[in-house]
Amino acid sequence: MVLRGYVPTSEETLQTLAALRLQSLNSDFSTHAPFPRLEELFPPHVLHARLPAPRPDPPPKCRGARLHVGLLAGGLWGHSLAKQRAERDQRLRGRLREEGASTMAAIVEKWKLLQGMGRPEAMAAYVALVREWPGFGSTLFDVDLRTVRPRPGPQRLWLGIGAKAVSLYKPGEPEPLDSFCYGRISSFGASDSSTFRLSVEDRDLLFETSQVDEIAQLLNTYLVSTGAHRPPQPQDPATGPLDPDPTTLPRGLCSVAGPWQRPPPTGSFGS
């Protein structure tokens, strides 16, 4: 989940997690230790996010009166455009290699500070660091929330299914937009093969997702495990009021953890 970007935190913390992973795998730093590839230690999307956004291709030259040059002009223009794209891709690949080398160097420096830390201690420190995220322990699903306002259309979110609550996150944000205790959920189920409906009191949330069955099964498991309420029965396909932008949903349906605190400096983990 860390490597896929499902633990929203700073690059500094991600580097510390990578160093702890190296300490767990290889023990103390050594130039002879086997190095995993960077993408096995650090989320690749973080490096890609540092790259400048690609510029759109320039519009084709004016047609009309010079259309008679036809294939010759088109061929020359296409060749020039392909050359520009190749040069741009080469620059981006070079920049990506530079960013990767810089990140690996920072990870190695943090790894060196962990000298003497045993494998169980490194594993415990890794988990302790990740547990500081309030959503730790939740299973996250990529979903599109159908919204009516402020603008129609789906909104990409994370749906977090945890032991005590269901939460909605904006991808990459550590704090939830909203959380729903299981006691507030009146019903849930599949409206169709790609739409999951979650009814919270008098509101209906519709999510477009390819993991309808997985979400339903996990929700049912947690509801059964609480023992306090009978699991809601899945809903039949139906139409109903759609929820507005999740940022307008009222908070306070259940208690949530406080803000994610900054991690301790590298090398200060206790046993």
TrEMBL record:
Signal sequence interval, chain numbering: none
Pro residues biased stretches: 261-271
Region (Disordered): 226-271
Compositional bias per record (Low complexity), positions renumbered to this chain: 236-253
Domain FERM: 1-233
Record-given protein name: MYO10 protein
Species annotation: Anseranas semipalmata (Magpie goose)
Lineage: Eukaryota, Metazoa, Chordata, Craniata, Vertebrata
